[in-house]
Design brief:
By secondary structure, the chain is an all-alpha fold. It contains 11 helices and no strands. The two termini are about 25 Å apart.
């Protein structure tokens, strides 16, 4: 749980940095490529190919390609179809996908996880809902594509981790995750990116380096490791904890406007869903014992 909380704080700052220094100024495909390439450079020196079989390496690369590469392509395309509030609103459905996919991959059905995930969605909607424009269905579907990719990557990583030895040094194999993302990010930039919108200031380059080394490199490693140490309900809920955290950072540092009452109410609903999920797990464990 501590990994997920720490990465939530890290990504909350990253969200504001992207909005202030990169969005609308630097080509999005180049930004994704830089983040993935720098993150890969963090882990490549530690890579030990013999620790995984060929099939396992390909599986981890596929997880990185989906969770990071394809997800970002969907995510950045959604801004061409929707307003920023609409994009942020439609990202709140990720917890439901995680709850459903985790049950599917592990061969079980846990309706209570869907309940707590739905509470997290409601909490995020309280914070973010500002109405929607007409003709938004194409954008809605694109955002759901991003949500599904991010959810599938997290659950796929949990499934792969369950099949590998508990003593596996993950820092020696995680480079395959970013190499898989590179397989998507590099062709996407070459085909869809614009060399005319590269960074022009030192601040923009600094933000890209920070996002690549810390937010992507350290962030995705710790988030996925944290995903294996909690139950599916907690993981689902934590996917929406970034919304109040990101808004709070944006408000405190950049003095952006926010409805404090809605922010507080939504955050309380998300916190309640986490508590309810924890209570249910403890109660179920007591009954089983």
């Amino acid at each position: 749980m501590s990994y997920l909380v720490g990465v939530t704080a890290l990504w909350a700052f990253s969200f504001s940095l992207i909005g202030v220094y990169l969005a609308g100024q630097v080509d999005s495909y180049f930004a994704v490529l830089m983040r993935v390439a720098l993150a890969a450079l963090v882990f490549l020196p530690f890579l030990r190919p013999r620790l995984l079989s060929g099939k396992q390496r390909l599986t981890l690369m596929a997880i990185g390609a989906v969770q990071l590469g394809v997800m970002y392509i969907f995510f950045y395309q959604s801004f061409l179809l929707l307003s920023v509030p609409e994009v942020l609103l439609f990202t709140i459905f990720t917890p439901i996908y995680i709850a459903m996919l985790d049950d599917l991959m592990f061969g079980r059905f846990t309706p209570f996880y869907l309940l707590t995930a739905l509470l997290a969605v409601i909490g995020a909607a309280v914070i973010r809902y500002d109405g929607i424009d007409s003709g938004f269905w194409a954008g809605f579907l694109v955002v759901q594509g991003a949500n599904l990719c991010f959810a599938l990557g997290q659950v796929g990583y949990r499934r792969l981790d369950a099949e590998l030895p508990a003593t596996l040094p993950w820092h020696n194999v995680f480079g395959w995750f970013f190499l898989g993302a590179m397989v998507v990010a590099l062709p996407a930039f070459l085909l869809l990116g614009s060399a005319a919108a590269l960074p022009t200031s030192g601040w923009q380059w600094a933000v890209l380096v920070w996002l690549g080394l810390a937010a992507s490199g350290g962030g995705y490693f710790l988030w996925n490791r944290g995903a294996t140490r909690v139950d599916a309900g907690t993981l689902a809920i934590m996917n929406n904890a970034l919304i109040p955290a990101g808004l709070l950072v944006n408000l405190l540092i950049w003095n952006r406007e926010a409805d404090l009452a809605r922010l507080a109410l939504g955050a309380l609903i998300i916190a309640f869903s986490l508590w309810l999920n924890h209570w249910w797990r403890e109660h179920r464990g007591y009954q089983t014992a």
